[in-house]
Design brief:
There is one protein chain. The protein is of the alpha/beta class and 223 residues long. The chain has one domain (9-219): Alpha/Beta hydrolase fold, catalytic domain (Rossmann fold), CATH 3.40.50. Helices cover 28% and strands 17% of the residues. The protein contains six helices and eight strands; from the N terminus they run βααβββαβαββαβα. It has helices spanning 21-27, 29-34, 93-107, 118-131, 180-187, 208-219; strands at residues 9-14, 39-44, 48-49, 69-70, 112-116, 141-145, 167-172, 194-198. The strands form two sheets. Strands 2-1-5-6-7-8 form a six-stranded parallel beta sheet, sandwiched between helices. The longest helix is centred in the middle third of the chain and has 15 residues, at 93-107. It starts with 8 loop residues before the first strand and ends with a helix.
Length: 223
């Protein structure tokens, strides 16, 4: 699959925990500008409202608000998520997978996935499902920003085999929400990951060095 249309590649974008489609769109304005003419970003909202107050160590970059949403909860009783938590039980992933599958059906051609933080962790899981032959997810590549492996016990099966999806992994060396080693750990499960580091923290970088790396990665999928 590749895009030859004037608007470029179509990337389905999955936001971070306690964000939503609109807030993530606002936070990726510089990236949209950097990719103008090469790719368009299609934002998808997670299905689960987040109503709990933030807890220490939560993987989030936004404060709680009415529109805050999440892809799954590592603590279903409290309705919270913590990327560092070894969760014996979690809740919400299947609904999120169904929601992303519906977005694929709604948008038609989707060339790639782009995820940030918890959304990037979900991208990793979807890549594993694609590797396993899940017909719902037809795409060519993934951009994983501040990604990590889910520590939920029920999610371990997603990381048991190598993932052959072409991937670009973007990580911040000073990220205190998702430490760089967690992002590198996720990247290690991909067969030929491209790893892009930046000196900043927990955000989507789009300055000149990152723009160059994004465009070089995407160029192989544009025909």
């Amino acid at each position: 699959m590749s895009s030859s249309r004037g608007e470029g590649l179509r990337l389905l974008c999955l936001h971070g925990y306690r964000q939503d489609a609109e807030s993530f769109r606002a936070r990726t304005g510089a990236l949209r500008k950097a990719l103008r003419g090469r790719a368009q970003l299609l934002n998808v909202a997670a299905p689960h409202p987040v109503v709990a107050r933030p807890q220490p160590g939560d993987a989030a970059s936004d404060p709680p608000k009415a529109a805050a949403r999440g892809w799954w909860f590592s603590n279903p009783q409290e309705g919270t998520f913590n990327a560092l938590e070894e969760a014996p039980a979690c809740q919400g992933l299947e609904e999120s997978l169904d929601g992303v599958a519906a977005a694929f059906a709604e948008h038609g051609l989707v060339d790639g996935l782009l995820g940030f933080s918890q959304g990037a962790a979900l991208v990793g899981i979807i890549c594993a499902l694609k590797q396993q032959g899940d017909p719902r997810f037809q795409f060519d590549f993934a951009i994983v920003i501040a990604g990590f492996k889910s520590r939920a016990v029920s999610h371990r099966s997603y990381y048991q085999g190598p993932i052959g999806v072409p991937s670009l992994h973007v990580l911040g060396e000073t990220d205190r929400v998702i430490p760089a080693e967690m992002s590198r750990d996720l990247a290690s499960h991909f067969t030929e990951p491209v790893v892009l580091t930046h000196p900043g923290g927990h955000f989507v970088p789009a300055s000149a060095p990152q723009k160059k790396a994004y465009l070089e990665f995407l160029a192989q999928f544009i025909k």
